[in-house]
């Protein structure tokens, strides 16, 4: 069974600083997708960034980037120049073949 | 485009009562998902529809939960009778046909409190 582990229940960062959220996953598949979702207090889940496992290049979306280490089954999210609006729960998720499995989430606090 | 609509946003009931949640996915999205998110945990898939048909309901407690998707559009999730442990946020999501099938769009969720 596929599992997703987020080892940091809570993280905090100063505004304008950089923070990295960790995620590891367990799978025997070679082709899959990985995602980071953001869930603000309003609770609507929003896609932040995604990575196809067959791509070696790390995905980047503006201030958000990932460090994808396929052999280590690691998929961390880096948020640069953190903003107050980045405060939320962040969920790492794995998808293969049609099921999306979530980790337990990391609560990110951004301090002004 | 309009997002995934869910109602009601909040519902409080007593145990053994019944409740129903409604979801209207993004127009044209073939796949619809219901997730249960218990406080402090990540969402857990309850049921997945592809058009009218059920693709995966392996984690749906079928003795008390039921879901349907009429005409491949709207969906309703029902709980009867509710238990205390059903207190959670119920998230609906939808996704289009491939190649965009891997990107889910979520609704705001329906928060259920069972007393």
How would you describe this structure in keywords?
heterodimer, A: mainly beta, four-stranded antiparallel β-sheet, 0% helix, B: 115 residues, mainly beta
Short structural summary:
The complex is a heterodimer of chains A (112) and B (115). By secondary structure, chain A is mainly beta.
Can you characterise this structure?
The complex is a heterodimer of chains A (112) and B (115). The radius of gyration of chain A is 13 Å and the shape is globular. In chain A, the strands form three sheets. In chain A, strands 2, 5, 6, 10, 11 and 12 form a six-stranded mixed beta sheet that branches. Chain A contains no helices and twelve strands. The mean pLDDT of chain A is 92. In chain A, 0% of the residues lie in helices and 53% in strands. Chain A is an all-beta fold. The mean pLDDT of chain B is 92. In chain B, a hairpin with a 2-residue loop joins strand 5 and strand 6. Chain B has 115 residues and is an all-beta fold. Helices cover 0% and strands 49% of the residues of chain B. In chain B, the strands form two sheets. In chain B, strands 2, 4, 5, 6, 9, 10 and 11 form a seven-stranded mixed beta sheet that branches. The termini of chain B are far apart. The chains are: A mainly beta (112), B mainly beta (115). The interface between A and B is medium-sized, with 21 and 24 residues.
Low-pLDDT regions of chain B: none
Q: Which parts of chain A are unreliable, with pLDDT below 50 for 5 consecutive residues or more?
A: none
Order of helices and strands of chain A: EEEEEEEEEEEE
Secondary-structure class of chain B? mainly beta
Radius of gyration of chain A, CA atoms, in whole angstroms: 13 Å
List the helices and strands of chain B in order.
EEEEEEEEEEE
State the separation between the terminal residues of chain A, measured CA to CA: 41 Å
